[in-house]
């Protein structure tokens, strides 16, 4: 039940100790403000890292080669290892049932692309149809490379959105247009977008069979790329990714007469393993931020407890008179707790509101590769405020309990 006189007493007590109450409120407000800022920053780091992993499939496994770094079976170090179509075919034959997507890649880093009077230099890659999903490429227009393109050596080209904007005039339809790529004419069959942004969209995809023929590559390839079937748990996916990478490495090193431990000659990279390390790091950052924020709030709550002890001490005679007039202990406890919870709630809500406003207005302006869209979940923020209020009640309970135990005769003697 609402008791107007009780609230008048609370405001009167606060007004008598304005500076002390304000300082206590500031300590509580700053505690939850710091927690909200830290949680928002942690979320920004997490979002930034997740955005980086969105550029390619999270469970991507990539293979590329270099020169041997160890002697093996009488062969000198320094031999350059070259992948071939047979390596890709053997991997699909041996591991195909576990693969979700697979592609070999032949690429040239600087391919001239010309349309009319417009020209540009872009990365050109010969790929398989599955490469769209390995790269997380979304189609804005048309389609991606298909198996018919591979089989028939079609001169089909899928261009990135950046390439399309560079060589085609605004409003001009790219699909069906003939473009010159490194001296050969190709038909644009699709325009793709990529979460990685303009850097990833500055590429042109061709059927790998066509690219190898056009660039006189024979059956050589630059790299291999795979994704495995989705699994129920992250740990299971990491374990299977590691097992596949190990088996694939054994097969490739054996076929190319490379030392089993020569990872420099044949490198196999699993983005899942990298993701696991990064997410573990973000968890550590999140726990650290929570710990710092909660300790700051505890310091504020302790301040509330201290001010309540001082208030009880100052009002000892008043409390004694109340008890002498028949006030029950529960009413004394309620009076002290109400004041404690009121100060904690107002200060906590102020700190929460300020923290949310900071991320609402400043958050969109603070963006980088590994810091994106900092925010605080509203439910977590409200839950934190409720916990703070409960903590404030506990902070006021000890002084309230002491006040309820005061004997009227002793209280009336208090100076």
From TrEMBL:
Membrane topology category: Multi-pass membrane protein
Name under which the protein is recorded: ABC transporter ATP-binding protein
Broad class of where this protein is predominantly found: membrane
InterPro entries (UniProt xref): ABC3_permease_C, MacB_PCD, Macrolide_Exporter_MacB
Homology family: Belongs to the ABC-4 integral membrane protein family.
Spans traversing the lipid bilayer: 21-42, 287-312, 332-358, 378-398
Native source species: Flavobacterium kingsejongi
Cross-referenced PANTHER family: ABC TRANSPORTER PERMEASE YTRF, MEMBRANE COMPONENT OF TRANSPORTER-RELATED
Keywords of this entry: ATP-binding, Cell membrane, Membrane, Nucleotide-binding, Transmembrane, Transmembrane helix
Record's subcellular location: Cell membrane
Entry keyword annotation includes Ion transport: no
Domain (MacB-like periplasmic core) ranges: 21-240
A Pfam family the protein falls into: FtsX
Keyword Cytoplasm appears in the UniProt entry: no
């Amino acid at each position: 039940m609402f008791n107007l006189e009780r609230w008048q007493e609370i405001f009167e007590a606060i007004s008598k100790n304005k500076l002390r109450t304000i300082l206590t409120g500031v300590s509580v407000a700053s505690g939850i403000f710091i927690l909200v800022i830290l949680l928002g920053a942690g979320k920004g780091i997490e979002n930034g890292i997740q955005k980086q992993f969105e550029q390619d499939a999270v469970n991507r496994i990539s293979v590329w080669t270099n020169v041997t770094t160890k002697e093996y079976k009488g062969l000198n170090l320094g031999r350059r290892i070259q992948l071939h179509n047979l390596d890709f075919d053997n991997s699909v034959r041996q591991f195909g049932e576990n693969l979700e997507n697979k592609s070999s890649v032949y690429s040239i880093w600087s391919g001239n692309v010309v349309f009319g009077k417009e020209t540009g230099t872009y990365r050109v890659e010969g790929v398989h149809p599955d490469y769209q999903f390995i790269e997380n490429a979304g189609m804005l227009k048309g389609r991606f490379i298909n198996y018919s393109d591979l089989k028939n050596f079609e001169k089909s080209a899928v261009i990135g959105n950046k390439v399309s904007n560079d060589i085609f005039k605004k409003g001009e339809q790219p699909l069906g247009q003939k473009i010159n790529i490194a001296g050969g004419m190709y038909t644009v069959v699709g325009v793709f977008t990529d979460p990685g942004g303009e850097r990833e969209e500055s590429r042109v995809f061709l059927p790998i069979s066509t690219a190898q023929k056009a660039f006189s590559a024979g059956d050589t390839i630059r790299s291999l790329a795979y994704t495995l079937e989705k699994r129920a748990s992250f740990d299971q996916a990491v374990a299977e990714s590691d097992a596949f990478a190990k088996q694939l490495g054994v097969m490739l090193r054996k076929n190319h007469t490379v030392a089993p431990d020569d990872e420099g000659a044949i490198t196999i990279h699993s983005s899942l393993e990298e993701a696991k390390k990064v997410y573990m790091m973000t968890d550590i950052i999140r726990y650290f931020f929570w710990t710092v924020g909660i300790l700051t709030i505890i310091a504020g709550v302790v301040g509330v407890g201290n001010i309540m002890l001082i208030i009880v001490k100052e009002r000892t005679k008043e409390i004694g008179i109340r008890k002498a007039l028949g006030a029950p202990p529960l009413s004394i406890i309620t009076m002290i707790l109400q004041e404690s919870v009121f100060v904690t709630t107002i200060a906590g809500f102020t700190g929460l509101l300020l923290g949310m406003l900071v991320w609402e207005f400043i958050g969109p302006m603070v963006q980088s590769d590994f810091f994106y869209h900092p925010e605080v979940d509203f439910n977590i923020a409200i839950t934190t405020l409720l916990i703070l209020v409960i903590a404030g009640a506990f902070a006021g309970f000890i002084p309230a309990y002491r006040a309820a135990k005061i004997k009227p005769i002793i209280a009336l003697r208090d100076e």
